[in-house]
Every structure is written in structure tokens, then in C-alpha cells.
Specification:
By secondary structure, this protein is mostly helical. The chain contains 14 helices and no strands. The longest helix has 17 residues.
């Protein structure tokens, strides 16, 4: 038993085994076994097998920290195989999940993937860029970057925000069906989502959001 698990077991025992959050910490993610297998295979130089298991772990479900780690190692595998675009995409997904992600010195100093990661880290995220473009009125580019951000992975609140802004863009362009679809996606990600007073008062999307929120 690892020291971390032993400590958590002790904490649960002290709490009379009544703490749901502590019990949740002891429950491995659905993709944990596949992730562990992928990391072992990576360490053993079995990169094709590692990539399959890392992706399986992501598909089955991982914690945010685990998912960022899986995408990071997939990036290493792609970079080492000369697939820079795929390497960049996986690093973007890792940073979308964990924006504070940093590589340790040994990884950061790698001559192939180190510069790729450093360049991406210095760039604004697709989500942040999309928000900037929306505020400046560049709606077409904003929509593209919101879609990229959603594809790469966002937490529930950010995903709801991205779909909300996509709904605004569709509504403003008189695409009511797409507007309603994006509001539904936003509410699926965050059922408690509400518009700010200024947003709710908009004559086009305000009534549509209220209609979708009411299930009409």
C-alpha cells in the first residue's frame, strides 16, 4: 500500500468512514488501469502499445490531472515519431485540462518536444483567444477558436461558457436553431448556468435562452 493511500485510509477511519469526499479520493478513475499500463509501456519503450493504452484511459475517464498526464505522454510519443502537429495537439489538450502544467527539467530540456511545449505554453489558450476575439467583434474567428477549445477539452464551467458564446454568435447571425442547440449544450455542461443581466436583456438571445432554460 502506498503512503498516500495509507494516509487516506487512516483519514477515512478517523472520520468514522462517513466522509464521502474522502471515500471518493480512494476510488480510482475508470481509466486508471489503462493509464498505468500506458505509462509502464512508455518507460519500457513500447510506444505504440503505450499510445493505445493512454488513449484508452482518456476514453474511459480520468481525473483532470491524470488526463493532462496522458495527453502529455501522447505528445511525447508523437513528437519522438516526427508527428509535430499531433504532438502540438496533445500538448494543447493537456494545457486545456491543466493550464498550469509544467514539464520537469529533464522533459523540458528534450530537444524535440521541449521547444514545442515552451512555444505552446507562451501562447494564449484557444479559449482565452476566442473570448478576446469575441470582445473585439471578430466573431468568425472567435467561433472557430471556441470549437477548438471545446474539442481540446475544457472543464464544465468553461465548456458552458464556450457554448454560451457560440449561441450568442449564432443568434446574432439569425441562426436560431444553432443558437438554441448551443444553449442546450451549455446547460448540459452547467445546468445552473444563468446569463448576466446585460446578456439576459439582449432582445435576440435573451428570450431564446429563457425558452431553452424552461425546456420549451
Amino acid at each position: 500500500m502506498s503512503a498516500r493511500v495509507a494516509m487516506l485510509v487512516a483519514l477515512v477511519a478517523l472520520s468514522g468512514c462517513s466522509s464521502q469526499p474522502l471515500r471518493a479520493l480512494l476510488q480510482p478513475s475508470k481509466g486508471d488501469a489503462a493509464l498505468s499500463a500506458g505509462l509502464r509501456e512508455y518507460d519500457n519503450g513500447q510506444y505504440a502499445e503505450a499510445a493505445r493504452n493512454l488513449q484508452t484511459g482518456i476514453d474511459l475517464g480520468l481525473t483532470d490531472r491524470e488526463r493532462a498526464k496522458a495527453h502529455k505522454y501522447l505528445a511525447f510519443i508523437h513528437c519522438a515519431s516526427g508527428r509535430e502537429r499531433s504532438c502540438r495537439d496533445e500538448f494543447k489538450r493537456a494545457l486545456a485540462v491543466e493550464p498550469e502544467l509544467e514539464l520537469p527539467a529533464a522533459e523540458a530540456g528534450h530537444p524535440v518536444w521541449g521547444p514545442v511545449f515552451a512555444q505552446l505554453k507562451a501562447e494564449p489558450s484557444s479559449f482565452a483567444l476566442a473570448l478576446e476575439q469575441y470582445e473585439s467583434g471578430d466573431y468568425d474567428e472567435s467561433a472557430k477558436n471556441f470549437q477548438v477549445a471545446i474539442r481540446d477539452g475544457l472543464d464544465d464551467k468553461e465548456r458552458a461558457n464556450a457554448h454560451k458564446h457560440l449561441a450568442f454568435i449564432h443568434c446574432a447571425a439569425s441562426r436560431e436553431r444553432q443558437c438554441r442547440d448551443e444553449f442546450r449544450r451549455a446547460l448540459t455542461a452547467d445546468p445552473a448556468l444563468e446569463l448576466s443581466a446585460a446578456e439576459a436583456g439582449h432582445p435576440v438571445w435573451g428570450p431564446i435562452f429563457r425558452s431553452v432554460k424552461a425546456g420549451r
